[in-house]
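From: lab user (bench 3)
To: helpdesk
Subject: output format question, protein + GLP

Hello, I'm new to running complex predictions and I'm not sure whether the block I got back is the full result or only part of it. Here's what I submitted:
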Amino acid sequence: MRVTIAKDYDEMSLWAGNYVARRIIDFKPTAEKPLVLGCPTGSSPIGLYKRLIELNKKGVLSFQNVITFNMDEYVGLPESHPESYHSFMFTNFFNHIDIKRENIHILNGNAPDLNAECKHYEEMIVAAGGIDLFMGGIGEDGHIAFNEPGSSLGSRTRIKTLTSNTILANSRFFDNDINKVPKQALTVGVQTVMDAREVLILCNGPKKARALHHAIENGVNHMWTVSALQMHPHGIIACDEEACNELKISTYQYFKDKQSIEGILGRYTEMFK
Ligand code: GLP
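Helpdesk reply: Thanks, we reran it on our side. This is the complete output you should expect:
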């Protein structure tokens, strides 16, 4: 696993945005061979999206031949609700880039048959050739997408009931009222994410420190579903200093030494100036 430690949220976002941009540019996507991107919601990826939008507007990066699959969506929340993940994605990303509407895929949490919706989503990912780069965040309890503690690490897209911790954490988007937070979501599975050819997870702020510790320093465990990344041949965690608060000094120091020797952080933060 590669871990990059940026000094703060802005540097992490710049690094991750440039990294994703570089991946897309180097891939040279065409209509016949598009690049397939997995997309998260939440506060963590907002800075990354801002950077991708900026590079798109500068003409450095195009999304004309990029296909996206979002990680998850609430069940029963109208798409037009400001806190639906549909709204989030269009407001924070899709409305500002040159992506084609037909290349955007987001689970429909209002589908008449939710199980069929999930099955169809997996089929569409396969039909698109699989996901090249899945971006993601981490819940405070270590969940990836909405794969709550105890989720099968072999899971695929399905309905998930949210834990009270997640409902509480996400109530900040619903007037701090837990009763307004949907209790279920459709989510890609841990295995769906792990099937991607590359996975990039963002992790920032002190509230994520415990999750980062479990993701990196403890074993693969379904109680911290992001820890499945340890089994991925191309897993990256981009974090900031505050998220490292619970790492052992030796772990922290190793990743810092590694990034200074290999110049990983600088190589991407300096890009596209
Ligand atoms: C939600 C999403 C996750 C996200 C997590 C963290 O539960 N389903 O995909 O990673 O929130 O959100 P934030 O980035 O706002 O901390």
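A quick orientation on your result: The longest strand covers residues 198-203. Let us know if anything else is unclear.
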